[in-house]
Amino acid sequence: MGMIERIASLAGFERRHDDASPLDPSWQALAPMTGHYAGLSARAAENLSTVLACTSAIATALAYVPARIYRWEGDTRLEHSSHPLSRLIRYGCNPAMTWCDTIEHLVADTLLTGNGLLEIERNGNGQISGLFYHPWGMVTVQELPSGRLRYDIGDGKGNTRRLLEGEALHLRDRTNDGKIGVSRLSRSADTIAGADLANRHARSVYANGAYPSGVLESDSKMTPEIAAGLREQFDRRFSGADKAGRALILEGGLKWKSAQISPEDAELLETRRFGVEEIARLFQVPPPIIGDYTHNTFTNSETAGRWFATFCLAPWARKIEAEFSRSLFPAGSPFELELDLSGFLRGDPETRWNAHKIALESGVLDPDEVRHVEGWNPRMEGVRSNIESGAAE
Fold first, then answer.
1. Nearest-CA neighbor of 313 among 112, 86, 102, 63?
2. Of 110, 163, 157, whose CA–CA distance to 135 is shortest?
């Protein structure tokens, strides 16, 4: 590093260049570590249906709720539909991905690896013109002397691009150092590994005929060669789920004796069921949301939906709102992003309209404001009144 660069670095300036340079080993090690847990990669962990279901439930729910940009004018907050980010929300973050796709990928990556990254594209005026998702597995992070982070992004073809903090939006799960998020899968690696081993054991049981093993008995002594040949013949004819249930014909005084051990006796099914509850607990997703109705009733199903919105989605929504404000809006900006979780009630019209009724009766909202919440135009008499008053002026 030259003298000018050293002085600029001490002053807090950062220089971005596209050629890859050696990274500090401790930071370089972070990229692979954040993607592997007890022998499982983040993507391989999605082979566990509960991990996939939890990730999809949270990411999809946050992607489909309405997102709006507001501007504060004194104590009044007004929706600002002409903001550049509003246009990205409406028409798509980039030519390949809609807003819903972008948020879904960002949140899913954060849930699986602890980190999600969006590249911020700006036009010549400095306004936001695009958001591009980059898989965290293709990102390497380094801390600069200024304390800020830089992100080297690979394209899988040996090429690397570099982004500084102001050029990237970095969503992260809880960290150990305030800089790099640590996935819940990593923090609870034993839980994930246990569920994976239970699945492998079940798969092995079914692959070997969907029945527990047994013992072949003979009154006469068998040589090792005869025993090996018998085992090979028996496995070839009866091992495998597609050969289960075949009639067993034994000769030469051989007898079959079942081991009398079933998956239920070994508590395999109960272990797998408990694994579902354990993983759902990691993601704070109520089991009915991911299709586990073991202890479900109609009453607690409704409660699970409210619990999911309040204790799982709301914290993630606030985290996304705060990161967008920090990364996209300058300090002191009157703009803010809001993910409207009331949109989560779209599938529950009775609760939604009862809430509107209470708001109308208490004077919190008027009919036109309720219509606005529902995405409808004002009533025609209101529009007509506004036109007439304008004409009179």
1. 63
2. 110
Quick one: CA dihedral 162, 167, 173, 178, positive or negative?
Answer: positive
The structure tokens listed for 49 are: 């249906």
Mean pLDDT of 317-340: 93
3-state secondary structure string across the chain:
CCHHHHHHHHCCCCCCCCCCCCCCHHHHCHHHHCCEECCEEHHHHCCCHHHHHHHHHHHHHHHHCCEEEEEEECCEEEECCCCHHHHHHHHCCECCECHHHHHHHHHHHHHHHCEEEEEEEECCCCCEEEEEEECHHHEEEEECCCCCEEEEEECCCCCEEEEEHHHEEEEECCECCCCCECCHHHHCHHHHHHHHHHHHHHHHHHHCCCCCCEEEECCCCCCHHHHHHHHHHHHHHHCCHHHCCCCCCCCCCCEEEECCCCCCCCCHHHHHHHHHHHHHHHHCCCHHHHCCCCCCCHHHHHHHHHHHHHHHHHHHHHHHHHHHHHHHCCCCCCEEEEECHHHHHHHCHHHHHHHHHHHHHCCCCCHHHHHHHCCCCCCHHHHHHHHHHHHHC
Q: Is the pLDDT of residue 23 over 60?
A: no
pLDDT one-digit tens code per residue, 133-145: 999 999 999 999 9
**What is the CA angle 272-275-278, rounded to 5?**
160
Res. 174 pLDDT band, cuts 50 70 90: very high
Predicted TM-score (pTM) of this structure:
0.72
Rounded (5°) CA angle 237-243-244: 115
Dihedral-angle region of residue 111 (phi above 0 means left; psi in -120 to 50 means alpha; beta otherwise): alpha
In whole angstroms, what is the distance from residue 391 CA to residue 393 CA?
Answer: 5
Supply the mean pLDDT for the chain. 79
Of the chain, the percentage scoring pLDDT greater than 70 comes to 72
